[in-house]
Amino acid sequence: MTTASVVDLMDICGADRPEADRNPVKMAKLAGSLHTVANLEVIRYPFDVTVLGEALGCNIDPGTKARTPSISTHPFKDKPEEIEVPPDLLKRGRIPVVLEASRILRNKEGAKVPLVAGLEGPADLVSYLCGINSFLTWTIKKPQLVKQIVEKCIDACAIYANACLHAGADAIVIADANSSPDMIGPDAFRKLIKPNLIKFSNNIEGYSILHICGETDIIISDMLECGFNAISVEESVKDLDYVVGLAHKNNTAVIGNVSTSRTLYNKNAGDVRKEAFKCLAANIDILAPGCGIAPETPLRNLLALADARNEYYR
Fold first, then answer.
1. Which positions ≥6 away from 192 have C-beta within 8 Å?
2. If you write DSSP's letter for every residue of 152-166 in order, what string do you get?
3. In the sheet where 253-258 sits, what is the strand order?
4. What is the SS3 assignment for 293?
5. Across residues 17-33, what is the average pLDDT?
6. Cβ distance 5 to 26 under 8 Å?
7. For 64, which DSSP code?
8. Cα end-to-end distance, the chain, whole Å
9. 3: helix, strand or coil
10. CB count, 10 Å around CB of 294?
11. Is residue 291 part of a domain?
12. In sequence order, what DSSP letters do the residues of 198-222 get, joined into one string?
């Protein structure tokens, strides 16, 4: 449910980044290879979480084949009160590319496998627009300002998400790294971010998934109260059994949480299988990487993840 385009897939399907980030045909081709080549039962696109940030005015370092795009400017750092959702949001930046890729994928692969469109969450978006240091400082010193900005950002998230659903996506996943307890305290999450995630889930016209990075045990109950159909968690959660049990009581699916950096990137197929079985034994609902996959992750380890799923349920 998080980003998963790897260099091996680009080489096989002939759609390289960063061109595939800005060309809808190549975006659809690379995204489709997650299913047709890597055997994953999902097609997740786009391949980074800076699309909304760019549309709202951030400059983007486009990255390379092996390095994802990143934010290079923070246009509202000194004027956060000027942040507004533009009426032409859906025509800005790469949003039209993602929407066209959605339509292409719906026509080509949509009947075979779920299409999941991803976007940055409100805490990440504020950090893009104003700078991470400003965001973290304001959560303590200017919480009312953060609340006002987050409310505007969540409106932009909902407009973009619903456009993706209307264009063909089956589900939306919000990835909000800066909502993590590793970044802001649980109280700040509950007061400043959680109400807006609830607003988002209430206004989404399709399935929704919430991914927050880090050791999220302390805010799991809050994440579940946000109203998403599923939550995605990293391997750094301390007690996966607790997370799954609490989620199932809330009628919420759990996605994860094979380590991307420790296992999928650095280890072999046997290690991937072992960790996948551990996740499945915890009664996780959707086996998946715990977070975004590094571009140079070997394809053989993605294939091992799919093979482990098949073997476990054989």
1. 139, 143, 146, 147, 150, 184
2. HHHHHHHHHHHHHHH
3. 43-45, 115-120, 171-175, 207-211, 230-232, 253-258, 286-289
4. coil
5. 97
6. no
7. B
8. 23
9. coil
10. 18
11. no
12. HHHHHH-SSEEEEE--S--GGGHHH
Q: Is residue 210 part of a domain?
A: yes
In order of 9, 241, 306, the CA distances from 285 in angstroms are: 26, 12, 14
- Six token digits for residue 140: 């303590």
pTM for the full predicted model: 0.96
Q: Cα–Cα distance between 197 and 215 in angstroms, integer?
A: 19
Residue with tokens 């956060």: 80
Rounded Cα gap, residues 138 and 142, in angstroms: 4
Flag whether 312 is in a domain: no
**Beta-strand relationship, 286-289 and 230-232:** unpaired
> How far is residue 102's CA from residue 97's CA, in Å, rounded to a whole number?
9
Predicted pLDDT at 52: 98
- Looking at the chain, the number of H-run helices and the number of E-run strands are 14, 9
Q: What is the pLDDT of residue 112?
A: 87
Amino acid identity of 32? G
Per-residue pLDDT band at 267 (split at 50, 70, 90): very high
Record the tokens describing residue 207, joined without a space. Answer: 């399935």
Structurally, the chain folds into a number of domains equal to 1
Cα 211 to Cα 177: distance, rounded to the nearest angstrom: 8
Instruction: Give residue for tokens 């009628």.
Output: 251
- CATH number of the structural domain spanning residue 154: 3.20.20.210
Nearest Cα residue to 290 out of 240, 251, 246, 247: 240
- Structure confidence by residue, pLDDT tens digits, 226-242: 999 999 999 999 999 99
Tell me the C-alpha distance between 209 and 237, whole Å: 17
Give the pLDDT score at 110: 81
* Domain encompassing residue 119: 7-256
Element (H, E) at 174: strand 171-175
In this structure, is residue 150 part of a structural domain? yes
For tokens 């988002």, name the residue.
200
In three-state secondary structure terms, 232 is: strand
Q: Which residues contact 176 (CB under 8 A, 6 or more apart)?
A: 120, 121, 122, 123, 124, 193, 197, 210, 211, 212
